[in-house]
Amino acid sequence: MNLVKDMLKSGKTVIGTGANIRSETDFLVNSGFDFLQFDTQHTPVEIKALGPQLANMRGGQAIPIVRVGDNHQDQIYYALDIGAKGIIVPMVNSKEEVAHMVKCCKYPLDGARSSGGVRGEWGEYETYRDYIDAVNEQLLIIPMIETREALDDIEDILSVPGIDVLLVGPSDLSINLEVPLDYTSTTYQDALKKIAAACAKVGVAPGMYFVPPGITPEKLIEMGFRYFTLSWAEWATEGIGSGLSGLDR
């Protein structure tokens, strides 16, 4: 029901790509990526407007993951109701904030999500209770760590049950550590090592919202990070160019 969650549980690395309201989701969903990551924090797009894009992904390989703009109940509900199989909340700085996120994401009795009927693609079930249990078990819950405050409280944050990925916001973390966009600095690298080590202790996958300049995907994997996105446009352009170059015109 959620291949990404199953892969993370088995210790594998999952790789997705960014998508938006104009993306060719019917192509991207079966292109080989594990997930498509939609952003509504830094884009002028209302969450509900992504409904058709997520609907296009039904039955496909990749799952839809949505970053909401803030840790608000209504935003999380909107994303879940249009079919998100993973929720990203930015700027989570405390144990209490993570607990609130988890509560909004899960149906009773694990949480307090309001029922709006069957939403999303969660497999086969015989009763509505089976559907609720499936969502509570399979949904990916992904708080973002982006500040010094969160880094200092990382063990308390990770003590909240239900977290699947602790996701680094690369730019904001660097700014808050006073090394803006200096991703290879000792300060930044030490922070990543601390995050990876803390996650490993509790079985949570550390992730990066995107792979920042100066750091390779291979380096992230070596450090223990198991969730990140890669851009697909350059690969697609290379593939088209390669195909056309093989034609005798």
Beta-strand percentage? 5-15%
Which CATH class? Alpha Beta
- Structural class determined from secondary elements: alpha/beta
Low-confidence stretches: none
**CATH homologous superfamily descriptor:** Phosphoenolpyruvate-binding domains
Mean pLDDT across residues: 96
Strand order of the largest sheet: 7-6-5-4-3-2-1-8
Distance between the termini: 46 Å
Instruction: Report on the biggest sheet.
Output: 8 strands, parallel
* Rg for CA atoms: 18 Å
Q: Write down the domain tally.
A: 1
Key terms:
8-stranded parallel beta sheet, 249 residues, single chain, alpha/beta, TIM Barrel
Question: Care to give the gist of this entry?
Answer:
This protein has 249 residues and is of the alpha/beta class. The chain has twelve helices and eight strands. Helix 4 (73-81) links the parallel strand 3 (63-67) and strand 4 (86-89).
Overall description:
This protein is an alpha/beta fold and 249 residues long. The chain has a single domain (3-243), classed as TIM Barrel (Alpha-Beta Barrel). 41% of the residues lie in helices and 15% in strands. The chain has helices at 3-9, 25-28, 51-56, 73-81, 95-105, 128-138, 148-152, 154-158, 170-176, 186-202, 217-223, 233-245, and strands at residues 14-19, 35-39, 63-67, 86-89, 140-145, 165-168, 205-208, 227-229. An eight-stranded parallel sheet has the order 7-6-5-4-3-2-1-8. Strand 3 (63-67), helix 4 (73-81) and strand 4 (86-89) form a beta-alpha-beta unit.
Topology diagram in text:
Layout: H1 3-9, E1 14-19, H2 25-28, E2 35-39, H3 51-56, E3 63-67, H4 73-81, E4 86-89, H5 95-105, H6 128-138, E5 140-145, H7 148-152, H8 154-158, E6 165-168, H9 170-176, H10 186-202, E7 205-208, H11 217-223, E8 227-229, H12 233-245
Parallel strand pairs: 1-2, 1-8, 2-3, 3-4, 4-5, 5-6, 6-7
